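Re: the pair you flagged

First of the two:
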Amino acid sequence: MLLQFITVAAFVLDALAFVAEKEVGEALGARDPARLRRAVRLTTEFAFGFGLAFSALYLIGGRVIIEGVVAAPAARAAALAFLPFCAVVPLIGMPAWQLDGIFIGTTRGRALRTAGFVAAVLYVAADLILSPRFGNTGVWTAFLLMYVFRALCLGAFWPGLLRDTAARREPV
């Protein structure tokens, strides 16, 4: 059930990342750093709003949905126990999904590959450290950290992206 919550939010937030891909790609092609920053700002504001809305929906209404859909008492109890972790995924995952769209749209394959590799290594390390000690809470914490690692790794490439976009600007 919790995976379904995450999937629905990811589809909507990924749609905004797709819009970011298109808009930043056009801005890069036009060699317009101001347009790129505007596209990033607007799509990220919308993504944040939707991420916040999904998190609130899951926190406020998740219990009702789970109790109405999950019949097995043990499964229901487990879903309810970890619902707060699930509810923060749209907020914590949104920056990673949004940055993916931005870097895909600006054709930054090397940054995406490097960030993906570093985030994966850090995620596995976090899972290996946290899961044995904290069980499912450790699994969920490592899962949430994976989004943070991904966003931080891609964020490290952001200044270079802006620099490259500004450097492509042609004189008028």
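Second of the two:
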Amino acid sequence: MAAEYMRHRVAQSGLSHVVVDSGGLMRFRNEPAAPEAITVLAEHGIDLRGHRSSGISQADMRTADLVVVMAQGHLSALEFRYPQLVGRRELIRAYEHGPEPRPGAPDLDDPIGGPIEGYRECFETIRTCLDYLCTHLKHQR
């Protein structure tokens, strides 16, 4: 949900220099998004039906200016696998209260396997955070 919403916001915000990609640390490849996630984004006019899961590579990490993750465990795994990312990774909720990232942000709970309302709540947090992140990126130009 986050990557697809970010693509949507980047296009709306005129941030043509921003490239959004999505990748996971787990070994799931080419899996579709959860039906609940597809439904929630469709409620906001965003089509997630074509999404397929993918992993991240060394090349991805070499070219990324910023990697935004959902949980502290993801940050730790990235630090272990890609130590060169120091200073270029953030928790998504670091942007929950404004366009400057705040330390000590909590994890964003994954709604997978839960009711659709959990996906809706998760999306609202994602939307808030990524709207602020877009503001942050506009000021970084």
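The chain has a mean pLDDT of 91.

-B.
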